[in-house]
Amino acid sequence: MTSTVLVTGGSGFIGTHCILQLLCAGYLVRASVRSLERGAEMRATLREHGVDAGDRLSLIAADLTRDAGWREAALGCEYALHVASPLPARAVKHEDDLVIPARDGTLRVLRAARDAGVRRVVVTSSFAAIGYGHRAQRTAPFDETLWTDLSGGEVPAYPKSKTLAERAAWDFVAKEGGGLELATVNPVVVLGPVLGRDFSASILVVKRLLEGAVPLLPRIHFGIVDVRDVADLHLRAMTHPAAKGERFLACTGDFVSLQGIAQVLKQRMGDRARKVPTTRAPDWLVRLIALRSRLAKEIVPELGKVKNGTNAKARRLLGWIPRPSEEAVVATAESLVRLGLLNTHRLRKAG
Question: What is the DSSP letter of 137?
Fold first, then answer.
């Protein structure tokens, strides 16, 4: 009998890639979306990538901020991938705008999964729940044993939301989960091929570089992982016996600088990268801009910090092998060009 998998946030960047791989692997998929109007677009996107979902994909309307729909979403599912979580393109005015839906939404999904007899839930957490708030500069790679320290006072809203949501998930399963199994996937910045107009805010890193919207490059570093590999790791964590009760850091290894990403685009995208900047912004300028910009204010504590991560656990336990980060960067850029998602007005103006 074919298993049914619930995918929350099914129309999102990671969610769509998970659905694509699940359908290719023979699963039935039930996807939660905030609006059923997205259904036709989702099916068209899947067809464009070689999968005619037919009746193997069903949609249900459910919102992280409300109870309605989650019981019906989980009913009859053997597994659940809880991918949905708010990730805004701009800094939020108040951290609760991220923390409350991330934490409470995760608990809604877990309660529904437990009550419906779901075997295992894989929660999409983040490196943000691992690598922030540490007072001392770490030289060893970050791994799954570490947690973001929220006591330091400099942790931005998004890392705080992911940390509290994941902590809440583990606490729930330990105290109220019954037989429900849990695993988490903690990706770094997720890039890779965009499938449609509903892409993650992480894609804006490449999009804005290509459009020339970032005149100078702050001295920041981050890890990169391809969305196809993130989806693959979710599927492995969903069924592999060794994944029960485990966290998995999804990264390709050493972090790269924003300047390094710009250089990859310059080298690999030819004339399409003519507006990509290469000049680094001095730290004092970023700090000055931070006096008026919430986004710049969140960047300031990360200036000059290099945080490397290790994927040894996912490789060892699950046999996971990710693509190089450079391939993820180029795939992102090529898909944005192919789908016409770049701001052509901005490109013409810059030219």
Answer: P
Nearest 5°: phi and psi at 286? -60, -40
What residues form DSSP beta bridges with 271? Answer: none
Give the sheet arrangement for strand 57-61, strand by strand: 57-61, 28-33, 4-8, 79-82, 120-124, 181-187, 247-250
CA–CA dist 248, 170 (Å, integer): 14
Calculate ∠ Cα 25-80-45, nearest 5°: 55
The Cα-based distances of 276 to 26, 208, 268, 289 in angstroms read 41, 8, 12, 21
Mean pLDDT, range 62-89, rounded to an integer: 90
Separation between Cα atoms, residue 177 and residue 129, nearest integer Å:
21
162 flagged as catalytic: yes
How many Å apart are CA 83 and CA 234, to the nearest integer?
9
This model's pTM is above 0.85: yes
Question: What is the residue-wise DSSP string for 240-256?
Answer: -GGGTT-EEEE--SS-E
Q: DSSP characters for 274-289?
A: TT---PBPPHHHHHHH
- How many residues are given for the chain? 351
Given the residues 160, 162, 207, 275, select the one marked as catalytic. Answer: 162
The overall average pLDDT reported for the chain is: 91
Give the Cα separation of 190 and 203 in Å (integer).
8
351: pLDDT confidence band, cut at 50, 70 and 90? very low
CA–CA dist 146, 283 (Å, integer):
28
